[in-house]
Design a protein that fits this description.
- The complex is a heterodimer.
- By secondary structure, chain A is an alpha/beta fold.
- Chain A has four domains: 8-100, no CATH class; 104-159, no CATH class; 168-300, Glutathione S-transferase Yfyf (Class Pi), Chain A, domain 2, CATH 1.20.1050; 314-432, Rossmann fold (3-Layer(aba) Sandwich), CATH 3.40.50.
- Chain A has 22 helices and twelve strands.
- Chain A has helices at residues 8-16, 28-33, 40-51, 59-65, 73-77, 84-99, 103-113, 115-132, 166-169, 188-194, 196-208, 224-228, 232-249, 259-272, 280-288, 293-300, 321-324, 331-338, 361-364, 366-381, 393-405, 415-432; strands spanning 133-136, 143-146, 157-159, 173-174, 181-185, 211-214, 253-256, 290-292, 314-318, 344-345, 387-390, 411-414.
- In chain A, strand 11, helix 21 (393-405) and strand 12 form a beta-alpha-beta unit.
- In chain A, helix 14 runs antiparallel to helix 15.
- Chain A starts with 7 loop residues before the first helix and ends with a helix.
- Chain B folds into four domains: 4-91, Uridine Diphospho-n-acetylenolpyruvylglucosamine Reductase, domain 2; 98-216, Uridine Diphospho-n-acetylenolpyruvylglucosamine Reductase, domain 3; 220-326, Alpha-Beta Plaits; 329-409, Alpha-Beta Plaits, CATH 3.30.70.
- Chain B contains 15 helices and 18 strands.
- Chain B has helices at 4-14, 23-26, 51-64, 116-123, 142-148, 155-158, 193-197, 231-243, 256-266, 286-302, 314-325, 327-334, 350-363, 390-409, 428-447, and strands at residues 19-20, 44-46, 68-71, 88-91, 98-102, 107-110, 128-129, 165-172, 177-181, 205-213, 215-216, 220-228, 250-255, 276-284, 307-310, 337-340, 367-373, 378-385.
- Chain B has a seven-stranded antiparallel β-sheet with strand order 15-12-14-13-17-18-16, with helices on both faces.
- In chain B, helix 8 packs antiparallel against helix 10 (286-302) and helix 9 packs across helix 12.
- The chains are: A alpha/beta, B alpha+beta.
- Chains A and B meet through helix 3 and helix 4 of A and helix 2 and helix 12 of B.
Chain lengths: 433, 462
């Protein structure tokens, strides 16, 4: 039984917890609220009281289970090796089974499932976003703030939606002259709708390394927003759709530039479809050949170092939780950045501390998300850099919002964008010689 | 159920955001880090932002005759923060400022919600140290640590919390605010209430400000590991080190059961058949550390250690300590429930205590692993069990009682550093006699006549 189907599978995980409270030392939520329910021990206890029948699954209980960014910092600090990320997902799935899904989330996840409708909505959004969003002057990107508070606060800064989504902008197959490999690119929603610049940089860098990039048209949302919120049914539908889409196109490897999408392909699809005879095998095959882009560039191909041009940036790198603790990828992005001529990498204090975005967490708990973000922004400010690099579009959005609100002159980019910039600079340098 | 009136008064005093009354929140204050304890939900949880607000809460509690359970991070191991009679849990976590670091007087003034590690992070900037280092240093609060008088690994050389508390601000059980002690090294004015409230487990009043003593941080340190094929030899080695006038900062022991479990867990290179290992750290000026390390190595060999290892650098040091740090979590993995005791004996009795514990384990057919602070006589016999198995739990309780009996018979004490709380309350007369318990009760009733301050802990109400 997977954690998504029954609490039985996390029972032993619960028994491991000896209530020492070490999770308090690293929990970003507990640090802000200083309430027991913030840290893992509080929610583990609640789940135990629920299992023993002492309390019932109430809306209040489901709300408490929403207090987790799934940053996995407590996993790493737990002397007993409790996998709290599994426990919290199991608890949320149980809450949905018992109490149903929050109506707003229900609408959101239904939209994610209906790809064409969602596309249309986002397209309409890109035309009419000016109605709800107010532009803010920024020399790096088109940013905006909510004109009215719709319950998520007015402090959050969003990137403006581009006119065209990435998948409608780029061809399904991006050929190169002498391809040494064919790689499928899972764009994820944020890159497809918001950060098309990241997606273009992906294709650019891979082409530079003689890799043909396939971007299957039928791909959709990875389903993580649904599975972390306990909407297992929607997550399964999305997992299957994506597996079908990629299987149809075929590729030697699959790359992502989003840490959540990466965890979907590497673990979650397999867990969700554990009892699905048709799809489990397929999920495992793709899990085996799924890579974060930095992991792929370092371990799978050794990326081309000749042709890298000078990029004069002082960069600090923020570790996305699911890339760092989730997939163990933290050296690779730094290795890429260090290989770029002219670039200086300056570490911030606690680069692995959660930025507080955590997908829908930032929508459900906007104040808390902002408080967590403020600590991160303060750490960034201390580095005196001009660029923040990261490996996840969701973190990018949060970091961008943070530095904008703090009036820091920092450009926030994905590592791959800086690498693309370096290849471009290299070409220019080549021409001028 | 809390009367609506009380809730309104609390909200008025503290603001809505600092009062929790929903069942889902209350349940998370029904327990602490103590294993195999009955939990109990409080009626309300409040988080004051000032000493005055604490006093206000105490007055409200008095008006309505409600008990107050003061709580920091809830990491204690004696059931000390469980609200056994419902009432108010007073969370001190919002009082979390370091008010001052005074380099001239070598003191720091902190609020009770400051995490011990946060204080150390601050004072190390000035080359100073606050030595008490319980295992929960990264989570436990100063208020909780002072109230439990926590110890730690450095007790042998540096003492425990009570040796570092110079002054307190206290909200008394009647809501009055007093200050006692201060920044002076010498102070004999009146009864020593600072000493009384340190380790009082919140049963006499509420600590709202703490002045602690700081010391210059030691410049260097060196760790040494010694392996023994015989517990007596290890015990003699401990005595021999001290006899030779070396006072290590830390002198830890692990018995055979612990060694085997830890080795399976972290593979730190401990010999599986060893009967005991000693882990020793000397610190101080570089020259002194060099000299003492060599001396300790010689003594350990003379006392029959099968193997002695000195860590060459920080990396090797960390590896040695990984084994010790992993002791409890490794043991906790073996069975669902880990009952951790802290009975303490004079250090010369360590071998006797270790042997007695092993006898008790055999007698009651239990798995007991022992590790701990051998240098200060504070052992942690750890019973690995399952609280769902009521027959086995009966044997666990019998074994615990025999461990206490033995410790007292050897001239030791029930608790070295975890406190009495609920867990050891009923054994107090073994150590103090009835007259002693009555004296405790007189003090309790003088300062908290209505039993509102953490009732059900240390002193039982007749």
């Amino acid at each position: 039984m997977s954690i998504y189907d029954s609490l039985d599978s996390i029972n032993e995980e619960l028994r491991k917890c000896m209530k020492c409270g070490n999770c308090q030392a690293v929990c970003p939520i507990y640090k802000e609220t200083r309430q027991e329910v913030g840290a893992a021990r509080g929610k583990i206890s609640l789940l135990e009281f629920f299992l023993s029948g002492e309390i019932e699954m109430t809306k209040g209980l489901a709300d408490r289970f929403s207090l987790c960014t799934t940053c996995m910092a407590c996993n790493n600090n737990c002397p007993c090796g409790v996998r709290f990320d599994k426990i919290i997902l199991g608890a949320r799935a149980e809450a949905v089974r018992k109490k149903g899904l929050h109506p707003v989330k229900k609408i959101a996840f239904t939209a994610l499932k209906m790809q064409r409708l969602f596309d249309l909505g986002m397209k309409t959004g890109s035309i009419f976003q000016g109605v709800a969003l107010k532009n803010i002057p920024n020399r790096y990107s088109k940013l905006a703030r909510m004109r009215v508070d719709i319950g998520i606060g007015k402090n959050k800064v969003f990137p403006m939606l581009p006119n065209k989504t990435l998948r409608s902008e780029l061809p399904e197959v991006n050929t190169v002259k002498n391809p040494k490999m064919r790689v499928a690119f899972f764009t994820g929603c944020m890159i497809n709708y918001f950060y098309t610049d990241m997606g273009r940089a992906m294709v650019e860098v891979l082409a530079e390394n003689d890799i043909e990039v396939v971007i299957p048209k039928d791909q959709g949302c990875c389903g993580i927003p649904a599975s972390v919120n306990g909407d297992v049914d929607s997550a399964r539908i999305l997992a299957k759709r994506n597996l079908r889409a990629f299987d149809k196109m075929g590729a030697d490897a699959l790359v992502v530039a989003c840490s959540s999408c990466g965890s979907a392909w590497k673990h979650v699809f397999g867990d969700l479809l554990e009892n699905d005879p048709e799809f489990k095998g397929l999920a495992d095959i793709w899990a085996e050949k799924s890579y974060d882009i930095s992991e792929f560039l370092i371990h799978k191909i050794p990326f081309k170092k000749e042709g890298l041009g000078k990029v004069s940036r002082k960069v600090t790198y923020h570790d996305p939780c699911h890339l760092n603790r989730g997939a163990g990828v933290n050296k690779e992005p730094r290795e890429i950045l260090r290989s770029i001529p002219g670039l200086e990498l300056i570490e911030m204090k606690e680069p692995g501390r959660c930025c507080g975005m955590a997908g829908s967490f930032s929508l459900v708990h906007p104040d808390l998300s902002l408080q967590i973000s403020d600590r991160k922004t303060a750490d960034i400010a201390q580095t005196n850099t001009d660029t923040v690099a990261t490996g996840c579009p969701a973190c990018r959005m949060q970091l961008q919002s943070g530095v904008e609100n703090a009036n820091l002159d920092e450009e926030v980019l994905h590592t791959i964008q800086i690498l693309a910039e370096s290849y471009r600079a290299g070409k220019k340098e080549g021409k001028s010689i | 159920m809390l009367a609506r009136e009380v809730l309104q008064e609390l909200i008025q005093a503290l603001g809505k955001e600092n009062v929790l009354s929903e069942q889902e929140d209350l349940m998370t204050y029904a327990y602490d880090a103590t294993a195999a304890m009955k939990h109990r939900k409080p009626d309300v949880v409040v988080s004051p932002l000032s000493t005055e607000q604490v006093a206000e809460v105490v007055k409200i509690a008095n008006r309505h005759n409600l008990p107050i359970y003061t709580r920091g991070a809830g990491t204690n191991l004696s059931g000390g923060t469980i609200p056994t009679e419902g009432g108010i849990v007073l969370s001190m976590l919002n009082l979390n400022n370091i008010l001052e670091v005074d380099q001239d007087n070598l003191t720091a003034t902190v609020q009770p919600g400051v995490i011990i590690q946060a204080l150390n992070d601050e004072v190390i900037k000035h080359g100073l140290l606050y030595p008490p280092d319980p295992g929960t240093i990264a989570t436990a609060t100063m208020g909780g640590s002072v109230s439990e008088c926590s110890g730690g690994l450095r007790g042998l050389k540096y003492g425990v919390t009570k040796h570092y508390i110079m002054g307190l601000q206290i909200v008394l059980a009647n809501g009055e605010i007093i200050r006692w002690g201060g920044k002076t090294v010498k102070n004999v004015t009146g009864y020593d209430l600072v000493a009384l409230y340190t380790g009082a487990e919140g049963t006499l009043g509420i600590i709202t400000e703490i002045i602690v003593k700081l010391i210059p941080a030691p410049e260097a340190r060196k760790s040494i590991l010694a392996v023994f094929d015989n517990v007596d030899k290890a015990g003699n080695a401990i005595a021999a080190i001290i006899r030779n006038k070396v006072i290590p900062a830390t002198l830890e022991i692990m018995d055979n059961v612990t060694i085997q479990t830890v080795e399976n867990f972290v593979h730190a290179g401990l010999p599986m058949d060893a009967e005991a290992v000693l882990l020793c750290e000397v610190d101080g000026y570089k020259e002194v550390v060099e000299r003492e390390a060599v001396l300790v190595e010689r003594i350990l060999k003379e006392e029959g250690a099968v193997e002695v290892k000195i860590a060459k650098d920080d990396q090797e040091r960390d590896l040695l300590w990984l084994a010790r740090r992993s002791a409890l979590p490794a043991l906790a993995q073996k069975r669902p429930t880990t009952v951790l005791e802290d009975a303490t004996v004079p250090r010369s009795k360590i071998p006797d205590m270790l042997k007695a514990i092993r006898r008790i384990a055999t007698k009651h057919n239990l798995q007991i692993a022992t590790f701990g602070h051998a240098g200060d006589g504070n052992l942690h016999p750890t019973i690995l069990t399952d609280d769902r198995d009521s027959e086995e739990m009966k044997r666990v309780h019998l074994a615990v009682e025999e461990i206490f009996e033995t410790a007292i018979a050897l001239g030791g004490t029930l608790s070295g550093e975890h406190g009495i709380g609920i867990a050891k309350m009923k054994f107090l007369d073994w150590e103090f006699g009835e007259a002693g318990v009555a004296a405790l009760r007189s003090i309790k009733e003088a300062l908290d006549p209505n039993y509102l301050m953490n009732p059900g802990k240390i002193v039982r109400r007749d």
